[in-house]
Amino acid sequence: MEDVVSYDLVGDIAVITINNPPVNAIGWDVRSGLWHVMDRFSEDPRAAIAVLVGANRMFVGGADLKEFGKPLRDPTLPALILKIEASAKPVVAAMHGHSLGGGFELSLGCHYRLATEGTRIALPEVTLGLLPGAGGTQRVARLVGITKALDFILSGRPRLANEALQLGLVDRTDSGNAREAGLAFARELVDAGAKPRRISDLPSPAEDVEALRSARESIARTARGQVAPLKIVQALEATSRMSFVDGLALERRLFLELMDTPQRAGLVHAFFVERQVSNLRALAGVSLRAIQSAAVIGGGTMGAGIATALLLSGLHVILIERDAESADSANGRVARYLDEAVKRGKLGEPERQAITHVRFKALTDYSALSDVDLAIEAVFESLELKKTVFRQLDDVMRAGAILATNTSYLNIEEIAAVTRRPADVVGLHFFSPAHVMKLLEVVVTPKTSPDVIASAFGLAKSLGKIAVRSGVCDGFIGNRILAHIRGAADRLVWAGASPYQVDRAIRDFGFPMGPYAVADLAGLDIGFLTRQRKAATRDPRDIIPAWADDLYNQGRLGQKTGRGYYIYAAGDRIGQPDPEMDERIARHREQRGILTRNFSDLEIQRRYMAALVNEAANVIDENIAARPLDVDAVFLFGYGFPRHCGGPMHWADAQGLAGLLDEIRDLHREDPFFWTPAPLLERLVQQNRTFASLNDASEL
Ligand code: 3H9
Predict the structure, then answer these.
(1) Digit-coded pLDDT (tens) for 412-439
(2) Which of 119, 131, 189, 195 is close enough to 161 for a disulfide, judged by CB 3.0 to 4.6 Å?
């Protein structure tokens, strides 16, 4: 306890320091430590005032998320904050770095608040499926009024110290060090004879019916199905209708209700997945190869997006195209993406100029690459073409440079084999648009050297992307599973569902788009070419979506041609259903003599998810994904999986694996070819284990 909370005297000022690395999270030991130290402060005749600070990088990153879901232990945070607020001598919070969630709530119990410049202040509980549960709703509304409180708490967005000052969340900002600034503030307060000043004594805020109504409306539009935002509105509404004490009790009740929801469990899981996914034990201590310059081969949508991502991270980039005209177009594409980045405030105009004049070139000659540290190939998906590119890279690039391919499904081992340095070859599978999407699959062959893998993860971090390790197979983790769930969707359509119903059900589950709208977005030529590629090796029992071949043959390639599964008005990215689609599909069903039936939306969702979980279990069993959390990360950050469900493997655990396996076994009886229960799923059910148990056991 002494370790995590310390008490020092500087003259008549007590300095209370929270020292609980890495983020000074308020777990039980910090709460107990603060409780005892507050007793010591109140009994210490030498101390006239206390300054509360955080050691190291920040004030406090919030309540300890690792305690969530475990039994509550006294003292609770609300009780501790009430104790601080009740102190007969003033307490000053001096914040720096981050002051988040329970950390900022702690400061709201203090009588004066100071933040050093650059401090990020937020109540981000909503992003974890919670509401601020230690007085945050009641105190913020009293401090800044209902409208501002709604915006601050519903968005969870951090405010920099200066903005927090303008909002009235802190009393002053300071450009110096938090402890020193806190001491100076405390000195002033003592000299001025300042007394404790309690937010709980402030009058209730005026009721703002209109702001509450509009918040509820906006939640219905943008946070459909999420439970925390509405409870936040309810807790804020109470501030003008109830006493502080009753409001606090209501807030606590709502907080504990939310703590028990699957959404809270899913969102906290997603938080940890985001951090653990790049944490590979096998790479601990492996040194990285320096990457300061990069080449991108191919300047189509993907290549230009990758070049933009690399440029935005500060690298020097050479883009290679096959001729001057293509190099020109690629240059134009990158310029457009950079303009967008300037518009979005992601890039300053001087930096933009530096990129154009110094850091970026679009060329046609591979010999320019003799000094670059990394090359990423992003040419058309043809094995032969990629092999040709890799032979040329192998000829010109320096020893120790990294050779990467952005292929989405081709065998990287075969590509690496044409070089004299397969250990330097890795897959870097970006998702389109590459300068926007968070996910990066780092595809490793058995020969890829550990420092190349570690460097790929390092690169991802500097690009602001979430890297997931994947082994080699057709489609890697994401696209392999996607192809399988698309197969499940097609089987539903063969059996009687319409593509529009499937899309609606999948959207209602929480994905941003259904599989057929996604197909339209990607281009129906992609699916067609994949079917062609696989035709020779396709099992005769497999069935393909024959109607999709019709669409392709009629030149309906999706959004880019204005028609695909949906019909798109000019410039519109949301399509309208085609009234002739049912008939088109019905013809194929008749030809095959298929009897149709109706499916409920829930049935569609269950099948889709059963297919996802079953194939993901195979992907894990084959060590394509090392851990279930890697699959969760791929779907959360690359495929729009609803974050509040935590990722597909977390979702499966929450549903219960035994029930899911039963469903898959039933489907197996109907269609033994497509629905084979994954051996890993069977083993887990037999051993009464969860996917989560494999995350911890993994050797990676
Ligand atoms: C809350 O406060 C509820 C209250 O209203 C009511 C209570 C009654 N707990 O992100 P990083 C770990 S809800 C435990 O890489 P950064 C993290 O997993 C909470 N652990 O660092 C990682 O571990 P590892 C509201 C935590 O510098 C390590 O710390 N608070 C917590 O990039 C470093 O994390 C939030 O939602 C935690 N609260 O960013 C804020 N936070 O090294 C959540 C982090 O083993 N935290 N860890 O992988 C953050 O947003 C960022 O971590 C922060 C630092 C901005 C603080």
Answers:
(1) 999 999 999 999 999 999 998 999 999 9
(2) 119
> What DSSP designation does 250 have?
H
Instruction: Please indicate whether residue 64, judged by its CB atom, sits closer than 6 Å to ligand 1.
Output: yes
CB 228 less than 6 A from any atom of ligand 1: no
pTM over 0.85: yes
Burial of 261 (0-12, 13-18, 19+ CB in 10 A): middle
Extract the tokens encoding 307: 């070049």
Cis before 75? omega within 30: yes
In whole angstroms, what is the distance from residue 503 CA to residue 516 CA?
6
Can you tell me the distance from the alpha carbon of 316 to that of 554, in angstroms, rounded to the nearest whole number?
A: 44
Q: d(Cα 90, Cα 81) in Å, to the nearest integer?
A: 13
Which atom of ligand 1 sits closest to the CA of residue 66?
A: 14
Q: Is 125 a catalytic residue?
A: yes
Whether the CB-CB separation of 420 and 394 falls below 8 Å is answered with yes
Matching CATH number, 291-470, of 3.40.50.720, 3.30.420.10, 3.10.20.30, 3.40.1010.10: 3.40.50.720
- Is the minimum distance from the CB of 140 to ligand 1 under 6 angstroms? no
Scanning the structure block, which residue is given the tokens 């010109």?
A: 396
Note the pLDDT tens digit of each residue in 665-679. 999 999 999 999 999
Q: Is 129 in the pocket of ligand 1 (CB under 6 A)?
A: no
105 part of the active site: yes
Regarding the beta carbon of 66 and ligand 1, being less than 6 Å apart is answered: yes
Q: Taking Cα atoms as reference points, which of 604, 619, 591, 611 lies closest to residue 673?
A: 611
CA–CA separation, 2 and 17 (whole Å): 10
Q: Give me the catalytic one of 105, 237, 377, 663.
A: 105
Which amino acid type is present at position 83? K
Domain 5-260 is classified in which CATH homologous superfamily?
2-enoyl-CoA Hydratase; Chain A, domain 1 (3.90.226.10)
